[in-house]
Amino acid sequence: MEKKIAVLGGGTGISTILRGLKYYTKDISAIVSMSDDGGGSGILREELKILPPGDVRRCLIALSNTDKTLKDLLNYRFSSGSLDNQNVGNILIAALTDIAGSFDKAVIEMSNVFNVTGKIIPVTLDETNLVAEFLSKDKVVGESYIPKMCYRLNTKIEKMSMIPHYPNANKEALEAILDADIVIIGPGSLYTSIIPNFLIKGINEALYKTRAKVIYIANATTQRGETKNYSLKDHVDAIFRHSQFEFIDEVIANDFENDKEKYKNYYNEEDSSPIFVEEEDRKYFKEKNIRLTEGNFVKIKDGLIRHDGRKIGAHIFETPLL
After folding, report:
1. Which of 69, 106, 115, 145 is deepest in the core (most CB within 10 A)?
2. Given a cut of 80, is residue 303 above it in pLDDT?
3. Which residues touch 48 (CB under 8 Å, ≥6 apart)?
4. How far apart are CA 124 and CA 162, in angstroms?
5. Distance (Å, rounded) from C-alpha 87 to C-alpha 185?
6. Within 13 Å of residue 266, how many CA atoms lie on the same side as its CB?
7. What single DSSP character describes residue 132?
8. Angstrom distances, CA of residue 251 to CA of 169, 218, 245, 294
9. Are 160 and 195 contacting, i.e. CB atoms less than 8 angstroms apart?
């Protein structure tokens, strides 16, 4: 019997993991953050009053079993004219939202057309706006503005919230978490892709109540404007500060320190740095009774360090559940 997997996060981060997982199981639920307000998604969201389609599109591409031409079509972005910076996949989702009558029905229709493995589920069907409060006590509204403002102010993010406060979770998202054998959180931008999911009413409770093993996939590097100088412990601390419960059972962390020479040219040390496991992290996870798995779970793609979904899938499916 196939394991039921629920993956929670933003489309850019989790799409890499989804590509690897679908080789091991067809019972996948991709639960996608709905806070994006930048780029083409932001334009469609503002002009058509729909939920942001960009992260959903990325998951569609990752889980689709159609030919490369159709995947390329979904990902094609116009670079001139009135459609400048707009994406074909986003436009298709917007059109189907109008035809089907709702965003969630549009996602189901797109999934059928593109022969998707598993399900893609918006974490909420409410319109939301992400709010960040910095240590400087400044506040900014809007997912796309948060990293830029944090970097400009040279400060840190202290607290995340949403407008409206605690929007309702999509019932399908709650069901997927409660019914799963394994729940995977991340990887992805900590404050703008991962934590927004914990600001949705019902998600924290479902993660606490689920019988599933909950795994957090740590980011390979820190991120400009969000997590400068963050340790692995700092990432998990931030998640728990925005949650009612401490629900993580295992952390999968990258340990490519032996390959420093190989990877050192793929990040800018001023704005981003690799996250290695330190003794302080190991002590923290031992105190929290969280299993820590270290290994090389990354690869170089398009000149950047990226997670390797196949390596992560192999670890998750070939390691006995504890």
Report:
1. 106
2. no
3. 94, 97, 98
4. 12
5. 27
6. 18
7. E
8. 25, 7, 16, 8
9. yes
